[in-house]
UniProtKB/TrEMBL annotation:
Region entry Disordered, spans: 1-36
Species this protein is from: Cyanistes caeruleus (Eurasian blue tit)
Top-level division of the source organism's lineage: Eukaryota
Entry protein name: Family with sequence similarity 228 member B
Family membership: Belongs to the FAM228 family.
Length: 155
C-alpha cells in the first residue's frame, strides 16, 4: 500500500491545492460557414494587397528622394568644378596681380572725382547724372578682367 505522503499517486496531482484539477479542454478551431470564410479570406487578401501597395509606394518615394538628393549633389559638384572654383581662382589671381599702392591710388582718384563732382553740382543722384562729368558706375562698367574666356558662347 502506498503511503499518504508518497508522490507517486495520481491523487496528489488532482488535489494539490485542495481542489481537484481539471484538464483544460482543447479548443476546437473556429469554423465558419464556407461562404463566410471565402468572404473573410477575400477581404483579408484585399487588405494585405493594399498594405503591400502602400509599402511599395513608400519604398519608391524614398528611392526617388534619394535620387533627387544625389542629383543635387552631383550638380553642385559640377558647379563647383566648372564655375565656382575657376572664378574664385581668377579672382584671387586678379587680387594678387594688383599691388596695394595701385588699389589705394585708384580709390583716391575715384574719391577725388566724387568730391569734385559734389563740389561742382552740390548733389549726386543716380537718376540724373552725366557720365561725361562723373560716372558712379565706373567700377561696374569697367570690369573686363572678370570675364571668363573659357566659357564663351559659340556663335
Amino acid at each position: 500500500m502506498d503511503s499518504v505522503n508518497s508522490s507517486e499517486g495520481p491523487w496528489l496531482q488532482r488535489f494539490a491545492n485542495g481542489k481537484p484539477l481539471r484538464k483544460p479542454k482543447r479548443q476546437q478551431p473556429w469554423k465558419a460557414a464556407p461562404d463566410q470564410s471565402q468572404d473573410i479570406i477575400a477581404s483579408v487578401q484585399c487588405l494585405l494587397d493594399r498594405e503591400n501597395f502602400v509599402r511599395e509606394v513608400d519604398r519608391y518615394l524614398r528611392h526617388c528622394d534619394f535620387l533627387d538628393l544625389r542629383k543635387t549633389e552631383l550638380l553642385y559638384k559640377k558647379y563647383l568644378e566648372d564655375v565656382s572654383e575657376p572664378f574664385m581662382q581668377k579672382m584671387k589671381d586678379q587680387m594678387h596681380s594688383q599691388s596695394e599702392e595701385e588699389v589705394q591710388k585708384r580709390r583716391r582718384e575715384q574719391f577725388s572725382q566724387y568730391l569734385n563732382y559734389c563740389a561742382k553740382k552740390g548733389y549726386v543722384f543716380l537718376d540724373h547724372y552725366d557720365p561725361a562729368e562723373y560716372d558712379p558706375f565706373f567700377q561696374k562698367t569697367c570690369r573686363d578682367c572678370w570675364k571668363d574666356e573659357s566659357h564663351q558662347l559659340a556663335q
